[in-house]
Amino acid sequence: MPTRNMIEAINDAHRVMMARDPDIVVFGEDVGYFGGVFRATAGLQQEFGKERCFDAPISEGGIVGTAVGMAAYGLKPVIEIQFADYIYPGYDQIVSEVARMRYRTAGEWTMPMVIRSPYGGGIFGGQTHSQSPEALFTHVAGLKVVIPSTPHDAKGLLIAAIEDPDPVLFFEPKRIYNGPFDGHHDKPVKPWSKHADSEVPDGHYTVPLGKARIVRPGNDLTVLAYGTMVHVALAAVEENGIDAEVIDLRTLLPLDIDTIEESVRKTGRCLVVQEATRTSGFVSELVTLVQERCFYHLEAPVGRVTGWDTPYPHAYEWIYFPGPIRMKQALEKVMAD
Amino acid sequence: MDIPSSDPRRNAPRLALHVPEPAYRPGDAPDFSNVTVPPAGSAPRPDSSAPARDTHPLVDHLVRVLDEDGRAVGPWDPRLSPDTMRKMLADMVTVRVFDDRMYRAQRQGKTSFYMKCTGEEAIAVAAATALDSEDMCFPTYRQQGLLVARGYPLVDMMCQIYSNAGDKLHGRQLPIMYSDKPHGFFSISGNLGTQYPQAVGWAMASAIKGDSRIAMGWIGEGATAEGDFHSALTFAAVYQAPVILAVVNNQWAISSFSGIAGSEQATFAARAVGYGVAGMRVDGNDALAVYAAVRWASERARANAGPTLIEFFTYRAEGHSTSDDPTGYRPAGEAQAWPLGDPVERLKAHLIGLGEWDEERHAALVKQADAGVRAAQKAAEAQGILPGQGFDRIGSMFEDVYADTPWHLAEQRDTALGEARTYLGRDAS
């Protein structure tokens, strides 16, 4: 089976779907001739033509707004916001228009689109190229929010997102575009080609939205993570010799509550992990859900690992990034309580 | 704050901020002497496929067809048949009667809110007449005339206003925020300006698919300050989208006059120049000028000659909405003093001048429109009014958030139905 890194997997998902569905159009800043600053759309314009894959003006509001009109026409836009940090000029269109169109028109107009965007830190991007804004979207009724952590899932989830009848925010953890990252910034990063999850089948397949993956089975603790943090969590669990069950949520909204509940009831302990700033983050929702549903099975308070409530710094990136030290302390605390 | 005398900049002239103010406020006599109204027929009419720059003299002019005597003059006269003009007049009268009835319904407590378009009826009705029926419209809340002109049932409009059992939007939208795909009327948003890039996107999609349909979007002059206005113009210009973008300059954005949106230094039509798209300023109270401009722009779009920005120069004769009291911020009698007159009266005078209409027929038309609107109101109210709604299908509140209802919404629905059961003392659906 061919191996692909996450960018190649995402590129392949586009290619497979554009060949299958002539109504798919792909656009965004630099995505056309050049294939995107991360190369996720490389070759698509050459293969499918300028009318199906094209560069957009630097106007995120315009990109999302015109995508709304295209979806209303009957096309299926798959748009790229170059960095998730740039999504805010398009926020009104996403939140007030894309998310609510099905609802406010009682299904007369729907918004079957995918908004892709590289997100997260660990790439020396400073405070405007490192943010994790997923909680701003999981708070919005009508959106789905998907975050892959492997090339295999990235392709399968993106195809599922494109086929989904609802609008999907597809956040790509750019720190792991080229290889899994365990949080040890001072050690060499392994390429995806040496990882089992880089086996990405050719052609069409899907990874269903709303279904989490148990990455590592365990009995003593449940770790809930997504994106880059899945790899950080796995490494921390193994380095600290804890028999933890690590769950990759894959889809934050709708959430796979059954898998979470079953695991926490089994292990009795839970640690939630996100790269984003702490206050009102998505993991706060996870803590509440676990507390509401598994309270009498819990042996300890649910732990939380996050970024800090500061903008993302450039010079102190590895102090900000939730890495092995923060993971170790949190694991020990949840296990000790 | 005074600058201390030790400040090295003490001898520099003090800067001052300019905050625009309208020339007149409540208590003043309305005066529009600052509004330049060129003679009808004086605007040149470039070919619809001419380069955009050929239209740019029109951004500071005013395309007018009907003169002070009700005659159609000049190169923009669309030479419409009397039947077409009578249909436009009937639609404009219907809109006005409809507005009055629904305004009254709001005052009677039958619904929460209403927005009239008095004085602006020509902008929607004449545009709808000039477009093909399959072209897609991305309107604001003051284009109810599009639906009327395209034959959308008044009863359906009213059911939406009442959020009643006949409301196809299931009571989810404010009154007047209609949506109807078959009549080419896109869902209205309360966030201003969002429909503008959407119109461009729809037009781009039509071009991508090799379709022949075009799109038209409307925005108020106040909302041109939104980023969406500028992104829409950028995309329209970059991709030469087959779209018509209208700015309805009715002088007032709630209580803020058009100067607050930037009208003092340049017309809204002049925004077209910087984007390199065709642009013109049109008398919005002149149904024939509105028709001619939209027809011209639609020919241009259909010929892949590019988008057009049209400023419709008009006046909001009534309050912004039923929640607004315009006597608090503008002189009484401004609407009557508006130098471009009343669009209904002007079209009526034109038809009478042609011998194609008379006062008796007009009185009969108003009576007929009134009867039709009353009958529709009766039929709509038979399906409920807003204060009586809310308990018949509570479960529907949780539908259409997604194509399929996810677990968390299903749980919340069941909880809500439980609350309703407690409140009502019976099962709710």
From TrEMBL, chain A:
Cofactor or coenzyme needed: thiamine diphosphate
Pfam families reported in the protein's UniProt record: Transket_pyr, Transketolase_C
Protein name as it appears in the record: Alpha-ketoacid dehydrogenase subunit beta
UniProt keyword Oxidoreductase, yes or no: yes
Keywords annotated in UniProt: Oxidoreductase, Thiamine pyrophosphate
Domain named Transketolase-like pyrimidine-binding: residues: 4-179
CDD domains found in the cross-reference section: TPP_PYR_E1-PDHc-beta_like
UniProtKB/TrEMBL annotation, chain B:
Keywords linked to the UniProt accession: Oxidoreductase, Thiamine pyrophosphate
Annotated Dehydrogenase E1 component domain residues: 92-385
InterPro entries on file: Alpha-ketoacid_DH_E1_comp, DH_E1, Oxoisoval_DH_suAlpha_N_dom, THDP-binding
Source species, domain of life: Bacteria
Major enzyme class: oxidoreductase
Listed Gene3D superfamilies: 3.40.50.970
Enzyme Commission code(s) on record: 1.2.4.4
Keyword NADP: no
Reaction(s) the record says it catalyses: N(6)-[(R)-lipoyl]-L-lysyl-[protein] + 3-methyl-2-oxobutanoate + H(+) = N(6)-[(R)-S(8)-2-methylpropanoyldihydrolipoyl]-L-lysyl-[protein] + CO2
Pfam families xref list: E1_dh (PF00676), OxoDH_E1alpha_N (PF12573)
2-oxoisovalerate dehydrogenase E1 alpha subunit N-terminal domain sequence ranges: 13-52
Cofactor or coenzyme needed: thiamine diphosphate
Region span, Disordered: 1-56
Similarity comment: family membership: Belongs to the BCKDHA family.
Free-text function comment from the UniProt entry: The branched-chain alpha-keto dehydrogenase complex catalyzes the overall conversion of alpha-keto acids to acyl-CoA and CO(2). It contains multiple copies of three enzymatic components: branched-chain alpha-keto acid decarboxylase (E1), lipoamide acyltransferase (E2) and lipoamide dehydrogenase (E3).
Name of this protein: 2-oxoisovalerate dehydrogenase subunit alpha
Source species taxonomy: Bacteria, Pseudomonadati, Pseudomonadota, Alphaproteobacteria, Sphingomonadales
